[in-house]
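Hi D.,

Good news: the full-assembly prediction came through. Inputs first.
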Amino acid sequence: MLQAIADIVRLDGAEKHFGAVRALNGVDFHVGAGECVGLVGHNGAGKSTLMHMVAGTLRPDGGQIAVRGNQEASYSVARALELGIRCVFQELSLCPNLSVAENTRINHPSLAGLGWRRKAADLIRAKLDEIFPDHGIAADDIAGDLSIGRRQMVEVARAFTLTREPLHLVILDEPTSSLDAHTAGQLLSFVRRFVAAGGSCILISHVLGEVLQNADRIVVMRDGKVVTADAAGAFDRDKLVAAMGGAGEHQKATAETRKVAVGALRVRARPARQQDGKELAARAGEIIGLAGLAGHGQTDLLLAIFSAASRPKAGVEVTAPVALVAGDRQADGIFAQWSIAQNIGIRSLQRLRDGLLISPQREAELAEFWKKKIGIRTPDMNNNIYSLSGGNQQKALFARALGSDAEIVLMDDPMRGVDIGTKLEVYDLLREEAAKGRTFLWYTTETEELDNCDHVYVFKNGRIVANLGRDELTEEKIIQSSFGDTV
Amino acid sequence: MTALAPGTLPKSSPRGNAARARMLRSLLPALSLALVLMAIAWLNPRAISYFGFNLMLNLAIPIALATIAQMFVIAGNELDLSIGTFVGFVGCVTATWLRDAPLIGVAVLLGSIGVYALLGALIHLRNLPSIVVTLGMSFVWQGLAILILPKPGGKAPDWLLAIMSFKPPYIPFPILAALLIAAIVHFGLMRTSYGVILRGSGGNAAALRRAGWSLLKTKIVLFALTGLFGVLSGMALIGITTSADANIGNGYTLLSIAGVILGGGEFVGGRVSPIGAVIGALTLALAASPLLTFMHIPPDWQVAANGAILIIVLAARVLISRRER
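Then the structure:
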């Protein structure tokens, strides 16, 4: 009995079906007080569904949920908030038209009456200062104007603000996916402090190192079930990957050197704020990495190259068709009302045309080809794109770019919130395509991914500060350049 | 970790640009109003006077109120195609029942606001497109208006006539009323804590639901507010024209949508501005007749000129937004 009360939340035999898909298949799960539980698993393993259930946004089709030992018959978001359970969802859930303070108000019904604006602003500012010193966010900034990383910082900080409702458990679903290494570190050390003070936390992340270092206990999910759960110390990286299933054999395939046949110059670009002569050059068959802290001009340069492909631009030279794989896939990547096949075909309309119209047959062929090639997990490519899990949506966006005639593919941190199995598959595909002569420009916030690149440009304050070859590429070097006091 | 601490994040310039572009955009409605005023002053300096403004802005109050009404539904990502005929319906009720049998008149007007609230509930619960529902309702309101007042006539209640012909010292009444409307709605929608929730429902409905708010309630409130301001608009209109006609408000539907957009609002995303909407309504009201009459443009072309103003302002907005990127 004592055990049951020490549990903040306990699910017994939780089930959830979406049509024919069994998202959760009898899951037992609990979180104790003062505990950080790491939750890992492939995309589509059921992690997000489970968390929606704990947060009260989804009702279980079967099984029971108990909070602090009390059965909750009609569990809902409002009830969860009342009991001190909050969630930071993977998809950003700020209102882009509201200010940071106003977004804070949305989560706190008690922030009302005279002077609520000042109270809300003070509340969020104090929490941002506590978690992310030097965050550079003002309380009256409009959320839509902030970079995706800063939006994530606001959202995380908002979940930890305290007014009338208690705060016992915070669910963090991929909280670091849009943060650079520095801010991610700030967040994780705050989580440790929060847990040490008696709070509880569920940490979902595809960055296994984060989970191993910060969780007290790790729960591994696969195919809608919990496959194993144990103290974090009992796992290491390989064990986790093995428990998640698949992807084990890939391991460090990246380390083997790749013969690069250096081809013709494809892109030459100088960032707008570059003052010295440094510029980015990419040749056919190369994979070029863009590194540095998030939001230091990498995306701007990619967009400059993208627009230079259709109309000439000073300082940028592009000699082949270009495609872009967006990082913020909800905002910039996906056509929400369209099917998977339509989302893939949009970049290749010229080839899909039959007379004046788009040939549905050719569109379906293209979609089927990429479904097999890149492994999009869906029964039907004519389903809406949102029927896919996040990682599979991203695969569809890769298929859009790779299925097109583009010889240059720009990637704007595309692996955000994608599971490791999918990542390894995509890495292989990228190398294969590069060997065929395609050029990849790849901005990433995850240093491990840079191992796949032939060349890495490090950005700081909108300028290229370092140009590292494959053999001189180390994490220290990148950190050194991105933090170093260059001009 | 401490070694990395000095690496402070720089103030990102894109955000600075975005804030500047936002600022410019919020000034655009005022700028276009100033331009129209300058054109009028140049064409006929005598128009810029107490008497001139009273004359030129004669119909500005009902237009501003209808625009505010439209703004509330747009804040929730919906559109009201029935506001014009609704204003006509209210006008007919005002010129007949509200004068002859005030109790029935008040009950009918309150009931019509209730109908708007129900429409909001229906649209939310059945997930219907508001354009279709309100288009259907526009015929209902028009039909009711014709039933009440088959041919033009009726008379406004005396108290209403007295209010609308109020002549305050120094500042023309329409300008005073516009300031008042803008201030009240700005406070209610932009500054109160529940106003945030209403705007948030247009910005990211899913986020609101996850925070435990009722989207049914926000939609009902937004539609009820539209009904309320529609009623005020119809009453103000009759207070000016003194008698009613079933078709009197038909032009208001598109005028109100244009006013919201001209005032910096957007069709989706909960981005609206009450002050901008009132300014947009004033611009449209000014540009509609006096300016064009001074320019000796025949009435047939005045609608086109109105459209031209709209296109120019929206084009300027697109240009500013593009710089934002």
